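**User:** Everyone, produce a chain:

**Assistant:**
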Amino acid sequence: MRIFIAITLPENIKYYLKEIQNTLIKEPKGFSLAKDYHLTFKFLGNIDEEQINPIKKALSTIKSKSFTFSLDKIGFFPGHKMLRVVWLGIQPETDVLELQSLIDQSLIKSFPKEKKFKPHITLARVKFLKNKEEFLQNASKLSVKNLEVGVKDFRLMKSTLTKQGAVYGDLEVYPLDTS
């Protein structure tokens, strides 16, 4: 089973991210568009069933407060010269980075620490671009609304690959302290 740890996003934010995709990506055949949106803390990969309960137990020890972040600007991995992933950043990153660090610490015995974690929401994976300069120019002109996202939990999720793309489902939800 393919699993990862993430924050899911409310429907109004998902709808807005779809609008951004439609505005930015005029020729979708050159891209693999994200169909569901989330902020991934850690991709654990293909995990055997017997490993799930120890992962759930480790994640249940995390204590963190709920927080908010806002959508920020468009970015690219690995960078402007080589576009492989189009993503949307967030601000502030501090609380997300702290929670990601707690997740890493809780799983350190079984999974390596993330080397360079950059909080982001993937919009698309780039297959090919006819005109990279035009795409980058359009991306730089795109004004992103600083919509706020309240984070009250994080989730252990599974990813099932289908012909229509990945389908995501919750394995466990971990509430954050809202007091």
